[in-house]
Amino acid sequence: MPFNIALSGLNAASDDLGVTANNIANANTNGFKQSRAEFAEVFAASSESLTANAIGSGVRLKSIAQEFSQGNVDFTGNTLDLAITGQGFFTLSDDGSLSYTRAGAFSADRSGFVTDADGRRLQIYPPVGQGVFNTGDLQDLRLFTGQNPPQASTEIELGLNLPADASVPVNPVFDSGDPSSFNHTTSTTIYDSLGAPHTAAVYFIKDAAANTWQTRMQIDGTDVGGTSTLAFDQAGQITTPAGGLINFPPFTPASGASDITLELNLAQTTQFGGSYAVNTLAQNGFTAGRLTGIEIDPSGVVFARFTNGRSDELGKVALSNFASVGNLGQISDTNWVETFGSGDVLRGEAGTATFGLIQAGALEASNVDLTEQLVNMITAQRNFQANAQVISTADAITQTIINIR
Known about the structure:
The protein is mainly beta.
């Protein structure tokens, strides 16, 4: 009997040492979560022969429990390296088979898909516009590698102050090349449907009537429409045109693009005493842009940045969680899969509910405490030696009995 009990102790010590060795071996594995061996006493007695004085039959390995405490976050500078601070797992797809990981060492493959080292694709919620994402659908994250298309200008917002004491120009006939035929001018760059730039210049001409101005526009030196009247009240606020909006007729660019149709918004324009001053000047067009980089914010939104100053939302990193993470099934490459014991997957977004935040340019290190594991290793070794000594002692007793004559 002591032989079998001690043998179970040797096996238990060996299992404990194996778990400790695996923890130590993965001390530098990103996203690794350490485990611990849990043991239970074994009794040979059945439920019909229970007794308070029964001798146990040894020990068995009851379970290997996973510990999902947070690992340190190490910064790498690589944009596609991702770490989760808090709860949650990255969701990966291998031809539709889902797995989950805390190891966020991702890179783009030759087709632009963001994958781990084994080709599993990182899953995102696809964008539906206006900063909203479809959290009911999962898609592979694919980096946008083409050009950002141009957008034709349709509006110029111009907020300025026209001096109330301005004089009527000396030359009554407008000529953009003659500064004596207008009082002030402001220009900006606009874009056609092909992304080609054009110069739009707005001219302001003081009228003989009080609180009244005339305005004209030229695109690339060509008049667009005629003269429009601006009128101000005695408080210097614009009253004409209504809402400060002037619509110009289409301008046909030489680039072969579609006609440019502009609306000039002068709602913020005033006529106060003092000098001419431009306070705001903006237009809504832009040229084509080349990709300059990828950014991922703490909420998991993936942006593609372009040379034209634009950014496109490519998706939002999908996080997953489970009611019992300790019961997830372990597979290779620091990945887990859903099991009956873990409960159904709970999907969400970083920074919401129980989900943590995403840190781009960083990786979560293993949560293994090497000092603790070295102590566990010594303990397992002592347990093994003690059980071996039990076998040696039992053997000596048996030999004594055999030697009785």
